[in-house]
């Protein structure tokens, strides 16, 4: 029964723990399924061999039963013919066959019970294998999802100066600095323009005042 014990140990293994330790979880899960299939096939072959032995034991049992019945019929025939001595010989043969019959019956009963147990075990193993197959895609998907989450988190938390995201952040900072510098020059240029306008207006006002003074003098207006 070692084959069933090995498969039982395999089925009881913590698959998630094995995935954590595996370099390639997808290959690991597939290999586990392959191993389980091989064990189930071996168990099925063992069951087939046991069933073959059971059939042979049944044939021996049926043959012994037929022989016992035949010697009983011969003893009856001899008695009916008045040959008691021949009847005794037939019954002696029947007794010998019946002794074998007891052993054959015990052997067949034992094999039949074992075959029944093997059938139940193989049925359970096949059910567990089917369950494992159903979990296979789920486990692989979970593994890939974990890899994806790890990759994204690593990218977000990366402080590597060569990271594309880091380079983009630095470029944005440079652009922001240039925009601030340009804004400052624009504001300074605006201030200079206003100052020049004020002086120009002041000069125009002075000229107007001069012309007004001249005109008053000509007219004798104080």
Automatic annotation (TrEMBL):
Keywords, ordered alphabetically: Coiled coil
Keyword Cell membrane appears in the UniProt entry: no
One Pfam family recorded for the sequence: PspA_IM30
Top-level taxon in the UniProt lineage: Bacteria
Keyword hit for Hydrolase: no
Regions crossing the membrane: none
Coiled-coil ranges (or none): 108-142, 168-205
Family note: Belongs to the PspA/Vipp/IM30 family.
Listed name of the protein: Phage shock protein A
